[in-house]
Amino acid sequence: MKETFKYKYDELFNPTLTALHNLGGSGSVNEIEEQVTSILKLTDEQVNEIHRGNTSKLTYRLAWAKNYLKRYGLLENSARGVWALTEEGLKTKSVDKEAVKRKVVTEDKKERIVKQKKTKSNLNEEQDNNEELQKITWQQEIITELQTISSSSFERLCQRLLRELGFQNVEVTGKSNDGGIDGKGLLRIGGVLSFHVIFQAKRYKNSISPSVVRDFRGAMVGRADKGLIITTGTFTREAKREAQRDGAPPIDLMDENDLAEKLKELKLGIEIELVEKLNIKKEWFKAL
Q1: Residue extent(s) of CATH 1.10.10 domains in the chain
Q2: How far is Cα 62 from Cα 37, in angstroms, rounded to an integer?
Q3: 226-236: string of b/e by CB count within 10 Å (b at 16+)?
Q4: Mean predicted lDDT score pLDDT of the chain
Q5: Cβ count within 10 A of residue 267
C-alpha cells in the first residue's frame, strides 16, 4: 500500500520548531528537512512524494510553515538560506497553529489596506508570495529545462560548471563501461593541494537510490581522490547516508536545488533582472 505525505503546512509548525531546537537554534533548508523527516518518522516514499514539478510536498509545505513562523516572530532567515530561531523562538517549544494563522491573516489584511489593494487574496498553500516559494518556482523552471536537453549536453554543462567552480583539466569521458564515470578533473586548493575528482552526470526526474552511489564509489576506487554525482533529480535518504557512510570514501552529492543555485550563482543560462521600485514620499511634498 502506497504511503502518502498527509501533513498539511500548519501541522509542520511544531516539528519545524523542534527541528531547529535540535539543530542548536539554526539550520539550512536541507538540515531542517532532514530533522523533520526524522521527527515525523517519514518513509522515503512520503519524503519523495511530488507536489508539483520536481518539488516534494514536504519541501513545499515546510516552506510555508517556515514563512508563517517567521511572520509570527519565531524565525528569521538569511540571504544564504539559513533559518534561525529568534529570541522569542528560542523560548518557544510549541505553538497553537490556529493562533499562528490568525495573526498572519490579520497582518495580511492590514498590509492589503495599507497598499490599498482592491482585490481580496487569501493566504493558502497555493500562493507563491514569499522568497523561499519563489525560489522553488524558478528552480523548477530551470530543472524542467535541463531535463529536455540531451544527456551529452547535460554532461557538457557539468563540465562547464566544474570549470567555472575552479576545476582544471576537466574532461567528459562518456564511456559505457567505466562504472558510471562521465568525466574527471583536477581541483587545486590554495595552489598547494590537488585532488583528482571524477563525476557522474545524472539527468533524472526521479530520486537516485543508494545502489547508484555504491556502484559509483566502486568505480572511483583507485582512480580518483574524490567523487561527485550531479543530478537534475533528488537523492533518497538512504543514498545520502550511503554517500557519507563511515569507513567508505565519501561521495559528494549535488541535487536539483544545489545545481540550480550554482547555475544562478555563476549566471550560467540564468539572467538576473533587477526591477526598479519607486516610492513617492508624500510627506516630503507636504513639507514644502
Answers
A1: 9-117+125-138
A2: 11
A3: bbbbbbbbbbb
A4: 86
A5: 10
Residues of the chain with CATH 3.40.1350.10: 151-265
**With a threshold of 0.85, does the pTM exceed it?**
no
Q: Checking phi first, is residue 230 left (phi over 0); if not, alpha (psi -120 to 50) or beta? A: beta
Give the Cα separation of 126 and 133 in Å (integer): 10
Termini Cα distance of the chain: 73
Cα–Cα distances in angstroms (integers) from residue 229 to residues 54, 142, 143, 235, 288, in the given order: 18, 18, 16, 10, 63
Q: Which residues share a beta bridge with 200? A: 229
151-265: CATH number = 3.40.1350.10
H-helix segments, 48-182: 57-71, 87-90, 97-114, 131-146, 151-164
| 44-53, 54-63, 95-104, 215-224: the lowest-pLDDT one | 44-53
What is the pLDDT confidence band of residue 242, given thresholds at 50, 70 and 90?
A: very high
Give the CATH architecture of domain 9-117+125-138: Orthogonal Bundle (1.10)
